[in-house]
Design a protein that fits this description.
alpha/beta
């Protein structure tokens, strides 16, 4: 009986760290968008950024957009993402880069958000933050700088030169 419930015991013990993972990754992305960037973003994890943010969110995974789901299934490389962002006027993406190997070459990787602890909940320990052009990259770098000066979790962001 004890062995059959061992998984539930582990899940219960891991719940605080799992919740912290969501806070330290997804809530921080939402905070960057809402409090510092204040512009629409594209994401593959729709939850917190769309819930807490104050800007339109372009869903790239398809949980909130049947069009995105259809495009992702038709082209799993992600080459369609550049066109979708352009259609929606979105210049920023907070994504798991490995899910979209066909990102436009013109996109600029500005930074990476990394979980400070063991990853229990999120698909990956890191999220990459992109801008679709150099002018947008400058605005995202400025948002990072403001985020760094105000958040105790700012060390999670590493800038990409």
């Amino acid at each position: 009986m004890v062995l059959s419930n061992f998984g539930f015991v582990l899940d219960t013990l891991n719940s605080p760290l799992a919740s912290k993972n969501i806070h330290d990754q997804q809530y921080q992305l939402a905070s960057i968008e809402r409090d510092f960037l204040k512009e629409p973003v594209a994401v593959n994890d729709l939850g917190m950024v769309s819930y807490y943010g104050h800007q339109p969110v372009l869903d790239l995974w398809g949980l909130g957009s049947i069009d995105a789901l259809r495009e992702r299934i038709a082209d799993p490389s992600g080459k369609w993402i550049g066109q979708a962002a352009q259609r929606k006027g979105v210049e920023f993406a907070f994504i798991y880069e490995s899910w979209f190997p066909g990102l436009p070459q013109s996109w600029v990787k500005v930074g990476t958000l990394t979980l400070p602890d063991e990853n229990i909940t999120t698909p990956f320990k890191t999220v990459q933050l992109f801008a679709t052009n150099e002018a947008a990259a400058s605005r995202l770098r400025l948002a990072f700088a403001r985020y760094r000066s105000s958040s105790p979790l700012a060390q999670q962001i590493s800038r990409t030169p």
